[in-house]
Amino acid sequence: MGEQTRRESAVTLDFYEDLQHSGESSDARLKEIEPALSDLIPSIQESAQTLTASIAEYTRLSRELCKALTAYTEWLGITLEIPPEEIPRFNDVEKMFLSPQGHLVVVDKRGRVDSKALEEYPTEVVLTVVLNALPELKSKMDGYAQRLSERIDLLERISRELRSIPIYAEETPREDT
Description:
Elements: H1 2-22, H2 27-76, E1 80-81, E2 93-98, E3 103-108, E4 113-117, H3 123-164
Helix pairs in contact: 1-2, 2-3
């Protein structure tokens, strides 16, 4: 396939040089280049279809990722800080965080605030935010789970103690008079 591409390129280059020198191409030159073009056009169309499908899937997965992350931030009611230096696309940034509603909030050094849904950003920004947010999300989830575990233990102890207290008159100790 590499050899065929080189030949097609040579034919194209010859055609280009012919146009440069004489100002127009001959019918013979057009007939030489026509097979290369007729093979190339369907190949380009196929590549364009593949690229279009890939971009659509890339965009779909990016949005899905944003929705999943937002579901957790909303559920837990947490804000996740993003190191501004991780996303060079933003200049002069003081602070950056992902709100519980899934908005990327950017505060510049002059105090101006820009807030936009994460899914509105290019996929590269989304991926960088997610990669930086996941460790903090896990840490916060682990902290919540630990606090819940401690509360569950406390509730179980209280419940056990309450169950050991007599509740019926016949369970109370009798006094012999």
